[in-house]
Design brief:
CATH superfamily of the largest domain: Glycogen Phosphorylase B
Helix content: 40-55%
CATH class of the largest domain: Alpha Beta
Structural class: alpha/beta
Largest sheet: 7 strands, parallel
Number of helices: 18
Strand content: 15-25%
Oligomer: single chain
Number of strands: 13
Length: about 400
């Protein structure tokens, strides 16, 4: 019974890993999986030796705070996985954690496959040499990535993105609104502040104050029927801790905005429904920006991080933009407001401009449709075929 070692480092990797495991089992039902898995991968039968939360850390400062524990865990994980005698190793994203493991497996003659290319096209492009030493094969999600590896003679396959396979080309906003019991005709803004506590802490007050400004602006609009006031804000959060952070920000905001009553609903999960129901999305940069694009939603991308992390990132990135929708479009298609530019007033202004420009929103949706078609590649099946070719 062949055993595959697999490690995912965060929620998006857990989703990718779950699709991959399902596709592999569809072709080889005798396969077993062990490593670090989230709930979705475990639901597909993966055995997790450590909690995925232990390695779900983003940002230089945050990683430094947890560095000793991460290094110790990784060493213990390697030892435990080697005793399992896996036929091959799959690292799902999390390159700073997984590339070290992949190199150790490759040195021992065990194929090491990295699923999701590190963002060498955006920053730290010199990593391609390190990647070449570590991996047997790269499974790339985006069409512009293979050429970067082919130039360095790194085996690579473009497999597309599983979200593009999963989501229909036409979103069903009406059904999403019915699911969330939203009144017909309401202007709906989805706000996604991130999934980690550190991200929600950075964005909660920013998003709440932006909601206040947009609500004030809408209430003062004489062209809008009173029964459609105020804007409906949807904020999907997946843990009690992140919900508490956001609720605290709402409570504190009324000292600054005492006369504005927000129509803001915190959802337990339901990120997909919130985005599908929305007229526009305000989203912290990350995988959620891609999902919003595949749902054909105009959006404003924003992100805040600790000052030191931002200082380092600015000096290491190559692309003028950070949001996947803009990278895939090859231009600033949707606004990006990062770090010092991420203020409530700037977010409110950018959102208002998009809402007012229906022609531009239609253009955004057309470009997002083309991106969707290009990314739709039967990803899990293509990735599984490559992986199975390495099984002896």
């Amino acid at each position: 019974m062949p055993k595959i070692a697999i490690v995912a480092g965060e929620a998006s990797g857990d989703l990718l890993g779950s699709h991959l495991i399902r596709a592999l089992k569809a072709q080889r039902s005798d396969l077993t999986f062990v490593g670090i898995a989230g709930p979705k991968m475990m639901a597909q039968g993966a055995k997790s030796l450590f909690s995925i939360e232990n390695i779900s850390v983003r940002g230089y400062v945050e990683v430094l705070k947890h560095l000793y524990g991460l290094l110790k865990l990784r060493k213990n994980l390697l030892q435990q996985l080697l005793t399992e005698k896996p036929a091959l190793f799959i690292g799902v994203d999390a390159p700073d954690f997984n590339l070290w493991l992949e190199r150790r497996f490759k040195q021992k003659g065990i194929a090491a496959i990295h699923y999701v290319s590190p963002s060498i096209w955006a920053w730290r492009g010199g990593r391609v040499t390190k990647i070449k030493r570590a991996v047997s094969h790269i499974l790339a999600l985006f069409p512009f990535e293979p050429i970067l590896y082919e130039a360095a003679n790194v085996p690579v396959t473009y497999v597309g993105h599983p979200l593009a396979d999963e989501l229909p080309l036409e979103p069903n906003t009406k059904v999403a609104r019915e699911t969330l019991k939203i009144k017909p005709g309401k202007l709906v803004v989805a706000m996604l502040p991130g999934s980690r506590q550190s991200e929600v802490k950075q964005h909660a007050s920013l998003f709440v104050k932006t909601a206040h400004l947009l609500t004030k602006l809408q209430i003062s609009d004489p062209s809008l029927p009173a029964e459609l006031h105020p804007i409906q804000f949807l904020v999907p959060l997946i843990t009690r801790e992140t919900r508490a952070i956001f609720e605290h920000a709402i409570h504190d905001s009324y000292a600054e905005y005492p006369n504005v009553e927000l129509n803001l609903q915190i959802l337990f999960g339901h990120a997909h429904d919130a985005m599908e129901a929305a007229d526009i999305v305000i989203v912290a940069s990350g995988t959620a920006t891609l999902e919003a694009a595949l749902l054909k939603k105009p959006m404003v991308i924003t992100y805040r991080m600790p000052a030191l992390s931002w200082w380092i990132l600015k000096r290491m990135r190559y692309q003028p933009f950070v949001g996947l929708p803009n990278i895939l479009a090859g231009k600033f298609l949707v606004p990006e407001l990062l770090q010092d530019e991420a203020t409530p007033q700037n977010l409110s202004d950018a959102t208002s401009r998009l809402l007012a420009d229906t022609n531009y929103c239609a253009e955004i949706k057309q470009i997002f449709t083309k991106i969707h078609l290009n990314l739709k590649q039967n990803t899990a099946e293509k990735a599984a075929a490559v992986i199975l070719s390495y099984l002896k």
